[in-house]
TrEMBL record:
Positions of transmembrane segments: 43-68, 75-95, 101-122, 134-153, 165-185, 197-217, 229-252
Family: Belongs to the paxB family.
Species of provenance: Clathrospora elynae
UniProt entry tagged with the keyword Transmembrane helix: yes
GO CC aspect terms: membrane
Protein name stated in the entry: Uncharacterized protein
One MF term in the entry's GO annotations: lyase activity
Length: 263
C-alpha cells in the first residue's frame, strides 16, 4: 500500500543540490534535477507537493485502519507474507532515494507501520503454530525482494531509480484490490475489511497515480513511460476492483447479517 508514497520521495545528491541552488523553488520536497533543467512553472512543484503529502496521509490512515480491523476481527483478509515485498521496498528505496535525515525518517515511519501491522496480524490472526513458520518466511523473503529491486535498478537505470520504483510500485499495488474483492466474494462476510480501509486505499492509489500523471503532463520528456500503454493499463486494472469494491462490500455485509440472523 505505502509503496506509492515511497516512489515519490526525492534524493538530494550532489548534482541535484547544485541544480536546486541555481533554481530555488519554494517546495516541500526536492524536485528532480531533470525537471528543474526544463524550468517548469512553480505551480508544477506546488501541486506535486500537495499530491505527495495527500498520498502519504491517506496511506498512513489506511495502515491504521487495516491494523485496527485485523485486531478487532482476529482475521487478516490476505497473507502477511505480501508485506515482505512492501517492507523490502521501504528499506531499499530508503537507501536509494534519500540522503537527508527527514526523508529517511519518513521511510522509517512507514516501515514501522508495516512492522506494527505484521505484529498485530501474526499475534491475532494467525494460529500459534503458524507464527514461527511465517516469521521465518518473512525473514528470507525481504532480502530476496531487495535483491530483485537492486537488479531491476541495474537493468533499467535512471535518476534515483524512479522508473523501476514506479513500475514495481504500480504492480505491487495491483493485486491488493483484486485480493480484497476476492475475499469478500469467497467468504460472504467483511471480516478484516472496512469501508474506511477501502476509501483511504482507493484515494491513496488515485493521488499516487496523479503525482505521475501530473509530472507526465507538465514534463513529458522526463516521464514518458507514465503515458505508455503498460502504465495506463496497469492503472486501469489496479483501480477497477477498487471502483466496484463498495458494491461487493455491501453485498457481503448483507450476507453476513443473514448468516447472523439464521445462526
Amino acid at each position: 500500500m505505502g509503496v506509492w508514497c515511497l516512489v515519490v520521495l526525492a534524493r538530494l545528491d550532489r548534482n541535484l543540490a547544485e541544480a536546486w541552488h541555481r533554481n530555488p523553488i519554494p517546495s516541500t520536497t526536492i524536485p528532480q534535477s531533470s525537471d528543474l533543467a526544463l524550468h517548469p512553472p512553480e505551480s508544477y512543484f506546488h501541486i506535486t507537493d500537495f499530491l505527495i503529502i495527500a498520498c502519504g496521509i491517506l496511506y498512513t490512515l489506511c495502515y491504521i485502519f487495516y491494523t485496527v480491523r485485523t485486531y478487532s476481527d482476529r482475521y487478516l483478509a490476505g497473507t502477511v507474507q505480501f508485506l515482505s515485498a512492501t517492507m523490502a521496498y521501504e528499506i531499499y528505496y530508503a537507501y536509494v532515494c534519500t540522503t537527508t535525515a527527514f526523508q529517511r525518517a519518513c521511510f522509517f515511519v512507514w516501515f514501522l507501520f508495516d512492522i506494527t501491522f505484521v505484529t498485530v496480524a501474526l499475534r491475532y490472526a494467525y494460529k500459534e503454530g503458524e507464527r514461527g513458520r511465517t516469521i521465518w518466511k518473512l525473514v528470507w523473503q525481504v532480502p530476496v525482494w531487495m535483491a530483485f529491486l537492486w537488479y531491476v535498478g541495474r537493468v533499467w537505470p535512471d535518476e534515483r531509480e524512479q522508473r523501476t520504483a514506479f513500475w514495481t510500485g504500480l504492480y505491487l499495488e495491483l493485486p491488493i484490490g483484486w485480493g480484497q474483492v476476492w475475499y469478500l466474494l469467497k467468504r460472504g462476510d467483511t471480516k478484516g475489511q472496512s469501508l474506511e480501509i477501502w476509501i483511504t486505499r482507493y484515494l491513496g492509489c488515485i493521488t499516487a497515480f496523479l503525482v505521475f500523471i501530473w509530472r507526465y503532463l507538465n514534463v513529458p520528456e522526463n516521464w514518458s513511460y507514465v503515458g505508455s500503454w503498460w502504465s495506463i493499463g496497469g492503472m486501469i486494472v489496479t483501480l477497477l476492483p477498487e471502483t466496484v469494491y463498495p458494491f461487493v462490500y455491501v453485498w457481503a455485509h448483507r450476507k453476513e447479517r443473514e448468516k447472523m440472523k439464521n445462526a
